[in-house]
Design a protein that fits this description.
By secondary structure, this protein is α+β, with helices and mostly antiparallel strands. Helices cover 60% and strands 17% of the residues. Helix 3 (86-138) packs parallel to helix 4 (153-210) and helix 6 (260-274) runs parallel beside helix 7 (295-312). The chain is elongated. The model is unreliable at 356-361 (pLDDT under 50).
Length: 399
């Protein structure tokens, strides 16, 4: 149990502290093992020495009266010497070798084992995850995660790399979505410019054929010129829409703390200005004293959604402002005929719309979606249960 606690301490401590603790434990274990080895070798020597003795048989001795001690006459006694055998001598001097060799061996094995255990317990997992993560990042594969969760320096490094991976993945996703939007924009431009250009070419062919033959009356000529001017005006408006979309793509969100009461009053005032002979209902369900938003972006989305709803409504529009978790939401509902299946799939794409033949170019919901996403939120569209459509714009208020 004690060793498990020490292992947990090493695992959760910083690299410097855990390394110090590991080697203190290793040195203590080496010291204990070396002491035991030396003691046991010394004891073995003592046991071996018991087999080495000098025996005096039939001793010739006399009493020394001056010292009151017996004096043995070796020459007159039988002396028997018992020495160590070759095996015992080898064992005896082997104990000296053990006294030196075992501590040295324990140092080598202890340091090697400590290094191996420390690497496997502390370094192996994060290093392997970092290596694998770097390899996958180099291969442009960001669909992985680094799960090492220790509080040490390597854990911090793994968390930093995981954060970097998420940022790279988010940036790649954003770039991919931007490229897809650009592709859709280019496709839409190529498609929608074809009609007015074809119209202009047809009128030019008409004029080229009939003017030399004097077949055109002044009225026919003025009608043709007027139609050509309409096509040219449509091209100009379309070019302005494309330019506006490019500006929106590069817009930066600038959040500021807004007083909720003042913000809601300003919203209600703006809605009243847009309201005509039909009813617009304004509902609120937000109790935060202030919210952190880009006011200009929120109002631009609100006005765009409100104008769309008022264009398609029958009797009324309901605007509801509320807060959920970290999102500030605006819901706009109308009682019109609602979205078609095709609308639900494509309405938030740039330059999708039913009224491409008029002054509307189908960029309203696409712009709102882009602005909501830049503000950390989303745009959701759907149909009400009985009639009409709804659009929900969400904005992140945490930043």
């Amino acid at each position: 149990m004690g060793s498990g606690v020490q292992m947990d301490k090493i695992k959760n401590a910083s690299i410097k502290k855990s390394m110090t603790l590991t080697f203190i434990i290793t040195i203590c274990m080496i010291g204990v093992f070396s002491g035991i080895a030396i003691f046991m070798a010394n004891q073995s020597q003592q046991e071996i020495l018991k087999n080495k003795y000098l025996m005096v048989k039939s001793p010739d001795y006399e009493l020394d009266k001056s010292t009151n001690k017996y004096t043995i006459d070796i020459d007159g006694s039988v002396v028997e010497w018992h020495g160590l055998s070759m095996a015992e001598n080898i064992a005896y001097y082997g104990c000296y070798a053990a006294m030196i060799g075992l501590p040295v061996l324990s140092i080598i094995i202890g340091i090697g084992s400590a290094a191996a255990i420390y690497y496997r317990m502390k370094l192996k997992a994060p290093i392997l995850q970092l290596q694998e993560g770097m390899k996958r990042i180099q291969d442009n594969d960001l669909d992985f995660s680094i799960g090492y969760s220790s509080d040490d320096e390597l854990g911090q490094l793994c968390r930093s790399m995981e954060k970097m991976r998420k940022e790279l993945r988010h940036n790649n996703k954003t770039l991919w979505e931007t490229l897809q939007q650009r592709k859709l924009l280019n496709t839409s431009v190529a498609h929608d410019l074809r009609t007015p250009i074809t119209v202009l070419r047809g009128y030019l062919d008409f004029l080229e054929k009939n003017i030399p033959q004097d077949k055109l009356t002044e009225e026919m000529l003025m009608d043709t010129i007027s139609s050509m001017q309409g096509a040219i005006l449509r091209l100009e408006r379309y070019a302005e829409c494309v330019r506006d979309v490019e500006k929106i793509e590069s817009i930066e969100i600038k959040r500021e703390q807004q007083d909720t009461v003042s913000l809601l009053k300003e919203m209600e005032s703006n809605i009243c200005q847009l309201e005509d002979d039909k009813k617009v209902v304004f509902l609120t369900d937000i109790f935060l004293p202030s919210i952190n938003i880009d006011k200009s972006v929120v109002f631009r989305v609100l006005e765009n959604l409100l104008q769309n709803a008022m264009r398609y409504r029958k009797e009324k529009v309901i605007v509801e402002v509320y807060q959920k978790d970290s999102l500030f939401l605006i819901s706009v509902k109308d009682d019109g005929k609602g979205f078609s299946e095709e609308d639900l799939r494509q309405a938030t794409n740039m330059f999708y719309g039913k009224e491409k033949g008029s002054e509307h170019f189908g960029i309203g919901l696409g712009v709102c979606r882009l602005l909501c996403e830049k503000h950390g939120g989303f745009l959701q569209i759907g149909n009400n249960e009985f009639s009409g459509a709804y659009v929900i714009a969400a904005f992140d208020i945490l930043g």
